[in-house]
């Protein structure tokens, strides 16, 4: 565009020069229309792909997360098979399975959180009981009924807790 | 360039008419350049959004899938708490937890598959043993060592199996 003649120059041009300029500009218009249409087509294709991809990504992630639990399932089946022969080992098996399940959740980004002794925080705790306990400041988590998994933006649920309160 | 007038309409146009045409075309070029640039900018923004969205979708799906397991974790903790007081109930608790874990996997789209008696299929089965069994056709799944979860495109793993074979 920097080579465009200014108006005052243009009007002094001979008809032949102007005709050439018209042809040049017509070519430029055709070229730009083509580019514009291609960009619009790309945009349209990308929009369509986005919605297809989102459901594919979702499916993949669900499968990936689910696959992490298969060893836990296998151990549950194994523990059940042995439950009849060796009842005393069942509690031990259960403990190992629990540890394994905690590991899976931690690997997925949601470690078990122990809030005992923490300052009560409504974003992280849901109080289901209140107790007074000498020497403990108000609003301290005395007991965790159900633990939280994950923290901050990645908290799966708040912990259910019993909180201290002055008499 | 020849100075001879060519025999087309353009050269017969008055310089003023041509100059108007040049101005029109210049406006059109400017307009098209603007549209093209805006389409490219939209495309660029969409591309950036796509990669941000994919990781957000992934995180959300992982959290959703992980949250499904929390009741299983809670029951594992509960069963462990009671294991000391009432050992006989542990096997029962384990069975209930196993059922619950199967339900979660099924809800996520990966039901436990029982392949006993099925025709051996390398896409669905991994043979870890071979047995001959009278009256059973070759390549029949006799025993499932580890079950598959899900099927077809949604299979998390093939089943580990023992297969029949003629002597």
Automatic annotation (TrEMBL), chains A, B:
Gene3D superfamilies, A to Z: 3.90.20.20, Head domain of nucleotide exchange factor GrpE
Pfam families, A to Z: GrpE
Main location: cytoplasm
Compartments it resides in: Cytoplasm
Presence of the UniProt keyword Oxidoreductase in the record: no
Disordered as annotated region, ranges: 1-21
Keywords from the UniProt entry: Chaperone, Cytoplasm, Stress response
Amino acid composition bias (Basic and acidic residues), ranges on this chain: 8-21
Main function: Participates actively in the response to hyperosmotic and heat shock by preventing the aggregation of stress-denatured proteins, in association with DnaK and GrpE. It is the nucleotide exchange factor for DnaK and may function as a thermosensor. Unfolded proteins bind initially to DnaJ; upon interaction with the DnaJ-bound protein, DnaK hydrolyzes its bound ATP, resulting in the formation of a stable complex. GrpE releases ADP from DnaK; ATP binding to DnaK triggers the release of the substrate protein, thus completing the reaction cycle.
Quaternary context: Homodimer.
Entry's family note: Belongs to the GrpE family.
Protein name, entry field: Protein GrpE
Lineage, uppermost ranks: Bacteria, Bacillati, Actinomycetota, Actinomycetes, Streptosporangiales
Protein's gene: grpE
């Amino acid at each position: 565009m920097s080579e465009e003649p200014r108006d005052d120059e243009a009007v002094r041009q001979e008809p032949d020069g102007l005709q050439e300029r018209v042809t040049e500009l017509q070519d430029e218009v055709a070229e730009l229309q083509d580019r514009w249409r291609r960009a619009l087509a790309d945009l349209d294709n990308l929009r369509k792909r986005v919605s297809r991809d989102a459901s594919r990504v979702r499916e993949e992630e669900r499968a990936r997360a689910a696959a992490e639990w298969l060893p836990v399932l296998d151990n549950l089946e194994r523990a059940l098979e042995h439950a009849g022969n060796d009842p005393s080992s069942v509690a031990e098996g259960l403990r190992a399975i629990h540890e394994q399940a905690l590991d899976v959740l931690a690997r997925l980004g949601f470690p078990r959180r122990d809030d005992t002794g923490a300052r009560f925080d409504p974003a992280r705790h849901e109080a289901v009981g209140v107790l007074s306990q000498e020497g403990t400041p108000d609003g301290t988590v005395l007991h965790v009924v159900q633990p939280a998994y994950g923290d901050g933006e990645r908290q799966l649920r708040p912990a259910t807790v019993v909180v201290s309160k002055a008499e």
